[in-house]
Amino acid sequence: MQLPLPSLASACYPEPMPLLSVSSPFGWLVLHERDGAIVALRWGDSAPSEETPLLCAARDQLAAYFAGQSRRFTLPLAPAGTVFQRRVWKALTEIGFGETRTYGALAQSLGSGPRAVGGACGRNPIPLLIPCHRVIGSGGQLGGYSGQGGLVTKAALLRLEQPGLPPRSPLGGAPPNPPLF
Question: What is the helix (H) or strand (E) element at residue 167, kind and residue range?
Fold first, then answer.
């Protein structure tokens, strides 16, 4: 008998916590709150929701972001991870709207290697709010993205923040990891 795998939020926080389903241009997002902070954002189906002031603020800030009316999030975040992962995630929050950093540049600033940074980005429990989509490969390639839709979603998020980017996509015969510039 195979048991279903728990979500990241339930694996890190076994007791129930408030959550809120939010519709987005990329499908349903489910926000998780614990002790007054956002601890996870995952792609998934609409789930039974509990509207707390923090989750409603997160919903409103995400809606403003997707509408192009907001460039930053001002929410308390408390991602669960290793000391190194949390250092990477903090550095990600310092990459401004419309900006990108390479995995290598981020690694150098942290005294680490690009693959370790990529691994921490892939384990980011609060994508979008901790903007791992702003980290790209050294040649302008997208790299990876763990959110629903993968590189298509990453490219769309970067175009949302940088409307002048060409409408390239990893779909439709383009190379599997197209350069952005």
Answer: none
- Domains of the chain and any CATH numbers: 8-66 (no CATH), 83-161 (1.10.10.10)
pLDDT computed for residue 82 by the predictor: 96
Catalytic residue among 12, 56, 121, 132: 132
- As a whole number of Å, the CA-based R_g of the chain is 16
Confidence of residue 50 (pLDDT cuts 50, 70, 90): confident
For the question of residue 56 being annotated catalytic, the response is: no
The beta strand positions in the chain, using DSSP E, are: 19-24, 27-34, 37-43, 101-102, 135-136
| Predicted TM-score of the model (pTM) | 0.81
pLDDT digits (tens, 9 = 90+) for 73-96: 999 999 999 999 999 999 999 999
